[in-house]
Amino acid sequence: xQYNMLLKQAREEHGWSQKDVAEKIGTDSKTVSRWERRxxxxxxxxxxxxxxxxxxxxxxxxxxxSAEMVREDGxxxxxxxxVVVFEDTENLxxxxxxxxxxxxxxxxxxxxxxxxxxxxxxxxxxMLGRLRHSYSELLEYSLQKLVWIxxxxxxxxxxxxxxxxxxxxxxxxxxxxxxxxxxxxxxYETSEHELLILGEPGAGKSTLLLxxxxxxxxxxxxxxxxxxxxxxxxxSWAEQKPALEDWMSEQLALTYDVSQKLSTRWVRNExxxxxxxxxxxxxxxxxxxxIAAINAYHREHLLVPLVVCSRxxxxxxxxxxxxxxxxxxxxxxxxxxxxxNAAFDQIGQPLDALRQTLQTNQALQELTTxxxxxxxxxxxxxxxLVPTLSHDISTLQRQMWTDYVALMIEQKGDAKHxxxxxxxxxxxxxxxxxxxxxxxxFYLERVQLDWLPDNLRKRAFWLTxxxxxxLLGILVSCIIGMFLQTVFDLxxxxxxxxxxxxxxxxxxxxxxxxxxxGTLNTTRKRQCRYYLGRGLIGAGIGLSLGLxxxxxxxxxxxxxDWLRDGLIYGSIIGLVCWLLLVLFxxxxxxxxSPRAPQxxxxxxxxxxxxxxxRTFLGAIGLGFGYGLSTGLSxxxxxxxxxxxxxxxxxxxxxxxxSLIAEKNRGGISLTERLRWSxxxxxxxxxxxxxxxxxxALATGLFLIVGLSxxxTTGLGLQVSTNFxxxLSxxxxxxxxxxxSAGPGSGLINGLMMGLIVGGGIGLGYWLGLGLFQSIAQEQxxxxxxxxxxxxxxxxxxxxxxxxxxxAGLLGVLGFLGYGLSYWLNEGLSEGLNKGLSEGLIYALSAxxxxxxxxxxxxxxxxxxxxxxxxxxxxxxxxxxxVFPWHAQAFFNDATAxxxxxxxxxxxxxxxxxLLEYFANLDDGNASPP
Length: 929
What we know:
Blueprint: H1 5-13, H2 18-25, H3 29-36, H4 44-54, H5 66-70, H6 94-104, H7 118-141, E1 153-155, H8 163-168, E2 176-177, H9 184-190, E3 194-199, H10 205-222, E4 228-233, H11 237-240, H12 244-256, H13 260-268, E5 272-277, H14 284-300, E6 306-311, H15 312-319, E7 328-332, H16 337-347, H17 352-360, H18 362-367, H19 371-380, H20 393-411, H21 420-436, H22 454-484, H23 490-512, H24 515-519, H25 524-548, H26 559-583, H27 599-607, H28 610-634, H29 636-663, E8 673-675, H30 678-685, H31 688-714, H32 723-732, H33 743-773, E9 776-778, H34 790-830, H35 832-879, H36 887-896, E10 900-903, E11 906-909, H37 912-919
Parallel strand pairs: 3-6, 3-7, 4-5, 5-6
Antiparallel strand pairs: 1-2, 1-7, 8-9, 10-11
């Protein structure tokens, strides 16, 4: 795969993830990933955004415009090249593709015999067969199959802008009805293959487009140089508003199960015939922008046929600013009363009651002017007495859909399990969210926080973000405490749980705090309330810590000691916690990055990242607080060692919590597919940033462990078997102890230990994180979804795999690092053999801490937390009766009732008018009886 390395390097120079870049320019991480992999190219708007963000011109970012990229590989346009369908697999080598291109470059206009390989012919037949099957299946599911009526067409010169209109002002002419029997294929051929199809809702636009697509597939099967006719729905374009060429290549892959690489090549080389439907399925501002994007694409690909389909009113409103630059526009004519009566005659007696009502109800006559609504009326009021129908057209339309839904629920499905009220309520929620998010197909795994009702979102954030972070903070703090703190008993365990949850709360607060509070740009009254609230939290933390010393009660520790320690520790730590609560949200999330990979500049950048800022602030704050408290209670020498010990411990707590919180900030991002290769592994190991970070970690551990242990042993102190004791006490108490054996031997031994521990952990970090970074975490494409909620199940499996891999890797590293350090510690004093045996025993007793911590972190950042958040959202929806927990059974029932249809691993409404009906149920205008 050809990567845009300049764009990727520009991002990595700033230390940003793809998600960070996406948030800064207003798109999603998936789009940024496609840009870096050269699967798609940014639109002019986003190219400018990227240039401003990275402070580099487009050439430095390798961001050529779409026209230049189209001709970059030298392939001629479709007018000089027969359609080539490549093997639809990502694994087809680029060299193979290039060879195929060279064998098929033929000047068709010269009459030279078109030469294709057997593989190309097979792939072309496969793609055409896929299109033919897809269009036939869509027509089979169409509601308009209930009644077949030949639709009348009228030419609309005033709907499009072309050279003829500009020269002779044909745009002022009225619509001209085309002769009866004129097919949509005839109109397409006479319009020079550039056509706009307009109609009222339910007039049959999409069905007419499907019929045209079927005819064009037949032509493509007969003529090898004919482009592939593909129907693409424009509704998804409004989400990011990319260049139309990029959007088409992505949608072609998503809709028709073609690899992204091949679909991009087809679009660039003008091998497809776009049939664009659903221009009206987006907001008004997006429609105008979409027309501009279509025109821009059409100017660059003038010889490519193009068909666009839209509702009439929505198009005319958007076209007041800019019309589509096409040759012809046609309007689907409303059905006449004679056509309606002819349709009734086909059915006969079952529709007699509806026919009689039609004669006297003007609104009903108007409603039957579109095939869809006529078909729904015939299905709903067949073989039954027609109820009293309204004479108001809008009220009558709502009544029609209400009666249709009631009939389908009564006659089909399982009314015992899903009543009319339940079905209507759940489909109302589904329709509103599909409409709000410009989606036509619902995938359960795509439910996000903003799909919840407003009154549930705050609770959902607490349950999916803050509460898990609290629990994670308690767990990580206890694990780190057992490993690093000099003493870890019941009292320190309780304090570790309190402070771990507090630090997690600080991180989650800074990740969600509003800009008003963060910048303190608020009224004085709100500021006072803000500071007072955090002061009460700090006081609560201090009180809890003070009370925790009561567990020390016993011989040698009485009420006076408890009162002294409780007051000193509680007041100082409470004050520190209040300051941390205020300062955490003020930390800037962005930092300057070196424009070139320079060691000193990158080290400065590492120290300025958000995660390290949080780590330094929290660790220094708590370390100072504990050091001062211990110093006031037991003496300054003890205070220095205690402060250093707490600083090291809680620095190791804050960093993974911050990393996991930022990873899961924002929407739910599942890990539905894992990709790994040796090349990506070696590329990750060679990464400048990764090498510098690994070296800095190894050097830091070498100095801390070496100097701490060396000064401790060199100054005659007995070294504790606790790792945290050796890190903290060696540097503090060692300075005030009399020299016994001389510092030389102790420092040498300490540096040897530092070299072993620092080098081992640094090497393990370099290999382990390099392996982790080389595993690409991706989401599967829509065409790969075959069952409901497939993405969540796959993410749960993949996160478990990564969690187990992380647990094993961290367990081995912990075993080696801990065992070697203990072996050296004991071996220098009691013999290497005994040190080795003791080291193995001690390492085995501590390895589970590393395994649990590593597994938990690996699981959380690789989709496990996202799975947890997904099920919490589902539970909240179910608890509030917004949507059922057993979604599969409900979707199957709604499909049996002809309300939804199954699309791969998702579901969609049978028609957009039905979606709009359910979406408007909240208004109270269409509530079911």
